[in-house]
Amino acid sequence: MDFEIMSRVKDKMKEALSQAQMDLLDRALREAIEERAANCFPGKDRQSLVRQFISAKKIEGCSKRTEEYYSSVLGFFEKNIQRDVRLADTETIREYLINYQKINGCSNVTLDTIRRILSSFYKWLEEEDFIVKSPMKRIHRIKAPAVIKPAFSDEQIEAIRKTASKNRRDIAIVDMLLSSGIRVGELVRLNRSSINLNSRACVVLGKGSKQRETYFDVRAKVELENYLKARKDKNKALFVSSRRNGKRGGYERLTVNSVEKMIRNLGAKNEIENVHPHRFRRTLATRAIDKGMPIEQVQVLLGHAKIDTTLRYANVQQSNVRYAHQKYVC
Length: 330
Description:
Blueprint: H1 2-13, H2 19-40, H3 46-59, H4 64-81, H5 90-104, H6 108-127, H7 154-164, H8 168-180, H9 184-189, E1 195-196, E2 201-205, E3 211-215, H10 218-230, E4 240-244, E5 251-253, H11 256-269, H12 277-290, H13 295-302, H14 307-313, H15 318-328
Antiparallel strand pairs: 1-2, 2-3, 4-5
C-alpha cells in the first residue's frame, strides 16, 4: 500500500519536477516508508524474519537440505536488495530476478525456483501480518522449455552394475535405487529394521516426514543379504561408510553427498554422462509406465503428492506411443 501511494505521488509530480528532483523525491519517500516500517515492527529485524520463516518451514517437515537452500536464497536476496525485505515492492523483486539471471547466467528453471521460494516467503509474511499484501502476487511462473531428461538404457545399467559389483555395499545401493525408485535422502535414512527381506519391502521416510511402503526386486534382495552378512558393525543404519570414523571409531551412516559421489564415480568409470541417484528414480518410472503400470500407482510408489510431478519423471517410449495409436485410433 505504501509503495502504491508513493507511485501515485510521483506520477502527479513528474511534470512539475526535473529528473534530479524526482530522484530526491523518490529517495525521501522510500526513507519515510522504511522509517515507518521500522517503528511499526520494533525488535523484529529483517534477518530474524528469515530465521522465523525457516523455523516455520522446519516445523512443516522441511528437510535439512531444503532448509539450507531456502536460507541461502533468501540471505542472498536480502543482502542484494539493500533494504528491509518488508519494503520490497513488485518492481524491485522483478529487477532483482532479471539481474540475478544476467549475473549468474542461470536457466529459467533455476530462476523460477528462486521465484517460488520468494513467493513462499512473502506469502508467510502476509499470513503472519508482517506485510499487508505480498508483492509476489503479480509475479507469475517463469516459463521454461520442457527438457526431456533421459532414463538409463539397459546397456548403461548393466555397465554401472558390473562396476558397482566390485563392492558389496555399492551394488546393493545401485539395485535398491533402481528397483525401488526411492530418493537418495530416503535411502540414507533407512535402517536395518526398515526393510523386510522376505517380502522385499521397506518403509521410507519421504518429503514432509511422510512414511510410505515401497518395494525392491530379487536382485536387490540378494545384494542386500550379501552386504548385511558381511557387516561386522552394529550400526542400525542400513548403509554405512566403508571406513571407520577416526574420532568415534565406528562406521558412520552414509550421507547424501557420499552416495552422490559414489554414483558419479561409477558413471565416470563407464564414461556415462549425468549419472546421479535421481536418474535411477526416473528410470524406474519410465520402465514401469512402459510396461503398463497405471500412472496413479507409479505416483504412490514414488511418493508424489501430485500426479503432474510423476508425469514429468516418466519418459514414455515413442515406439509404445506408435503401438497405442495403431491399437486405439487406427
